[in-house]
Amino acid sequence: MAFSRIDETDLLLPLHEAAREAPRWRTFLARLRQRTRADSAHLLTSPFGAALPAPFNDITPERLRPNRVYAAAELGERAAGDGRIIRVTEPSGAGAVLAIIGVARVFTAADSALLSALGPHLAVALTGMVAIDGLRARLDLAEDIVARTGTGRISFDRDARVLHFDPIAERIVRASTGNSPAIGQRLRIGDLEAERLLPLAAATFADSPDSAPRTLRLSAMPACNILLVPARPAMAALFRSPIATGPQRLAAIEAIHGLTHSEGRLAAALADGASIAQAAATIGLTIETARNYSKRIYAKTGVRGQAELVRLLCTGVSALA
């Protein structure tokens, strides 16, 4: 079956643009329902957690041979009305089931031919959607890992206008300068030299993406230094924020190094920069008890003192918890 220009505009374009919709497939299904004069149109993607409506509510996708259009009667369905259904798969193994349902409508061979012709396009759209979902999953994981290290980021165009910023960077900039970053605007820093150097760095990175990173003092009081690196389309500013030890990180420290809860609390306090006396006061220990705990901590973790303990806990996987 050859698609008409109207079908290409009304069906194929929405089908291939479904990944950018929320909810997905909404426009395509609405157009398909209108095109076939169906009462409803449905599209399920794997894993198939939801059931199709009658007359296909008892159908499992595995019963359907890929790329073949079935009528409800062919599947032994005796419910009132009519329906057509097709299952498609794509190379990674993902699948989709597309169905049109008519309560008082009897579908024709032309409707089946339309679903059959849509099958290859649906498979292509599904392949693109699988790729996009994979990229989003990897991006979400990467952003989560970066956030766990206390690293914030602001992205700039070549004129040093803000394109994107994350909560860590926003919090540090506001604390350091009294101003928050705003999309489409330059940073309001209050330091004339820093405000002069940011656009110069952005233009340099835009023209020479292989340029070496450079540091910039965003503010002197409180002190805030940032690392400027080349990043599309021009530049990114990287910020670091101290990571406070929360329940998850504390549990990871205890589990990884075989520490008791009290030892874990002391180790975490030492890793956060406290002295033995400060850590003891914070967690309610005497100094002598804290010293005894610290010796056990050093033995269990295999370090020779507080400096090595701090390095171990700040660079090991427990720091990502």
How are the elements arranged and paired?
Blueprint: H1 5-16, H2 26-36, E1 40-45, E2 69-71, E3 82-89, E4 95-102, H3 109-148, E5 151-156, E6 162-165, H4 167-177, H5 192-207, E7 214-219, E8 224-231, E9 234-240, H6 247-257, H7 261-271, H8 276-283, H9 287-301, H10 306-315
Antiparallel strand pairs: 1-4, 2-3, 3-4, 5-6, 5-9, 7-8, 8-9
Walkthrough of the structure:
The protein is of the alpha+beta class and 321 residues long. Helix content is 45%, strand content 17%. It has ten helices and nine strands. It has helices at 5-16, 26-36, 109-148, 167-177, 192-207, 247-257, 261-271, 276-283, 287-301, 306-315, and strands at 40-45, 69-71, 82-89, 95-102, 151-156, 162-165, 214-219, 224-231, 234-240. The strands form two sheets. A five-stranded antiparallel β-sheet has the order 6-5-9-8-7. Strand 3 and strand 4 (95-102) form a beta hairpin. Helix 1 (5-16) runs antiparallel to helix 2 (26-36), helix 7 crosses helix 8 (276-283) and helix 7 crosses helix 9. The chain starts with a helix and ends in a 6-residue tail after the last helix. The model has no long low-confidence stretch (mean pLDDT 91).
